[in-house]
Design a protein that fits this description.
It contains 3 helices and no strands. The protein has helices spanning 3-17, 23-35, 37-99. The longest helix has 63 residues, at 37-99. The termini are far apart. Bound molecules: zinc ion. The site of zinc ion has 7 residues, from helix 1 and helix 3. Zinc ion binds next to helix 1 and helix 3.
């Protein structure tokens, strides 16, 4: 298989895997894969990369849940601070009121 057609097919493989190629182009890629072992190997490599990316996404989701937990925690702290400020203000008002 000549190198330039291989590099074109390899560029198209991610799109082929995502099934977003036009039927005609997909057919060309499919025929090439049947004849070319190098591009079949490349396709296997792409599968590994895609799987690694999916794992990465899973990790990102984990981080996202961490972020949500942190946001919730800081919200609770804000509530506590707000309650403290409110009770301090009430105490000050009661003191002022009791002076008169
Ligand atoms: Zn090839």
């Amino acid at each position: 298989m000549n190198n330039s057609s291989c590099s074109i097919i390899q560029d198209l493989l991610p799109l082929y895997e995502d099934k977003v190629l036009s039927p005609k182009t997909a057919e060309v890629v499919k025929h090439h894969l049947e004849k070319c072992s190098e591009c079949r190997e490349y396709r296997t490599h792409i599968h590994h990369v895609v799987r690694a990316m999916q794992n990465q996404n899973a990790r990102n989701n984990y981080r996202y849940s961490e972020v949500v937990r942190k946001i919730r925690r800081s919200f609770l702290i804000e509530l506590a601070v707000g309650a403290a400020v409110f009770s301090f203000a009430c105490a000050a008002l009661i003191k002022l009121a009791s002076r008169e």
